UniProtKB/TrEMBL annotation:
<feature type="domain" description="VOC">
    <location>
        <begin position="171"/>
        <end position="286"/>
    </location>
</feature>
<dbReference type="InterPro" id="IPR004360">
    <property type="entry name" value="Glyas_Fos-R_dOase_dom"/>
</dbReference>
<dbReference type="InterPro" id="IPR037523">
    <property type="entry name" value="VOC_core"/>
</dbReference>
<feature type="domain" description="VOC">
    <location>
        <begin position="12"/>
        <end position="129"/>
    </location>
</feature>
<protein>
    <submittedName>
        <fullName>Glyoxalase</fullName>
    </submittedName>
</protein>
<dbReference type="InterPro" id="IPR029068">
    <property type="entry name" value="Glyas_Bleomycin-R_OHBP_Dase"/>
</dbReference>
<dbReference type="Pfam" id="PF00903">
    <property type="entry name" value="Glyoxalase"/>
</dbReference>
Amino acid sequence: MELAFHRSPNKYIGGVSIKVEDLKRSIAFYHNLLGFKILEQKENKVVFSADGKKPLLIVEQPDNVIRKQVRTTGLYHFAILLPERKDLANALYHLIQMNYPLQGASDHLVSEAVYLADPDGNGIEIYADRKSANWEWNQNQVVMDTIPLDINDLFSERDPEGWQGMPEATIIGHVHLHVAYLDEAEQFYCKGLGFQMTSKYGSHALFISSGKYHHHIALNTWNGIGAPKPPENSVGLKWFTIILPNKEEKDQVIKRLKEINARITEKDGKIYTIDPSGNQIEITTAH
C-alpha cells in the first residue's frame, strides 16, 4: 500500500462514524466476521481499530433508531483499504467461506474491490490499490472502469493460513456519498475543502482527491437529484473525518468554507461542517 496518498502533505479520510439498529449484531459483524479490534466499548457505542491504537470506525446505536431510509443523501459506502493484494484475496475467500452475501466484485483498473453491506445496510467496499505508477491518466482525469474481478487470479495470492483479521496497516481509503446536487457538492468539496477532481461522469458522479490519488471522496446523485437528507435517528452515516496536513491548511479551509457560506463550528482544535446535502464532517490536522 502506498501510504503517501494518506499522509501529509495530502488531505485524506481519517475515520467514519455510522449508526446502526442493533449494536450487538454490529459487533458480531465488524469484530467477529471482519476482524476489527475493539478499542472502546460503551452501552450504545463501539470504537473499532485495525492496529489496536488508531480509531477507524465508530458504530453507534442512537435512541429511537429507525432503519436505513431509501432515496436519501448520506453514505453510499465507506471503503476499507487493505495493505496488499493478498489481503484482499484472504478477505474475499473468508467472506465466501462464511457464506456472507456479497453485492459485487470489481476491477477498477486503479484498484480491485469487493462490495457488501453490514447487517443494517451500510455500504462497504473492501479494496486493494494497484501500484500508482501503473494508473493511467488522461490529462487530469484518472482512467477507471468497472469490469469483473478476476477472482481466480486474485485467489492465487491468498495465504494458506487464510484471513487473520484486519491487517494492522488497514485504513479507511475513501468515502462515497449520496448527494442531492452534484454542482453544489463540487463547490463545497473542491472550492471549499480544496480537493481536486480526478474523474467526472456527467451530472451524476464525481471523484475527487488530494495529491493525485484516484479518489479520497466520491459523490453521486444515484438516489435522485434533490434527494432529501435522512432523519437524524436513521441508520446510516453519522460523520466522517478529513485530516488536513497542518494548521495553515486548516486556516485556508476555514476561510474558503466561509466564502461559500458553509456552516462551520470549531471545538477543541477541530472544525465541524456540513456539506450541502447534510453529510456531517469533522476536520482535524495531522500536525
